[in-house]
Amino acid sequence: MGDVWLVRHGETEWSASGRHTSHTDLPLTDAGEEAARSLAPRLAEESFALVLSSPLGRARRTAELAGFASPEVDDDLHEWDYGDYEGVTTEEIRERVPDWTVWSRPCPGGETAADVTARLDRVVARCRSVDGDALLFGHGHSLRALAARWLGLEVSEGRLLKLDTGTVSTLGHEHEYAVVLRWNA
């Protein structure tokens, strides 16, 4: 079992404006494409036994620009399904539901925390089963939730891990403990 490298896709128009983006498959902005390209030299220095991507174009394009043109697509890496809140900002949601967060309140018509836990636990198990490091291209909320599950925490604890677009984070071990080795780099 090796480390797990997490890459959040480059910027899109909606990620830049804070709109929840799950199934809406927006392209990367020019800045998002440049950020993805800038990851290539750092990732080229590593060797990965497993390279996975969300099925969404923004994650697959980030993988391509970062030097991984043919990652294995894993539907379990899809972004959290925001349901009726797709394309809406947190501020707009809070006009109707003042204390809402994706971490603590369900998204009408979307996924529950239990749904997200089940699919991300499958990804974690898959990463732990390979002999070597894994590289995952995905999304803000789902990668934060995945990191929480790696650490043995509830997905809601992902709220403590801000994750910017076009960044690399690494999960691993120190002795017998699952840890965050690098975050938002």
Helicity range of the residues?
A: 25-40%
- DSSP summary, beta strand count: 6
**Averaged pLDDT:** 97
Q: Name the shape in a single word.
A: globular
Question: What would CATH call the architecture?
Answer: 3-Layer(aba) Sandwich
What Rg do the Cα atoms give?
A: 16 Å
Which percent range describes the beta-strand content? 15-25%
Give the name of the CATH superfamily.
Answer: Phosphoglycerate mutase-like
Assembly type of the shown chains? single chain
How many domains, in number, for the residues?
1
Poorly predicted residue ranges? none
Profile the largest sheet: 6 strands, mixed
Write the H/E string, N to C: EHHEHEHHEHEE
Tell me the distance between the termini: 22 Å
The top-level CATH class is Alpha Beta
Broad structural category: alpha/beta
Helix segment tally: 6
Looking across the biggest beta sheet, what order are the strands in? 3-2-4-1-5-6
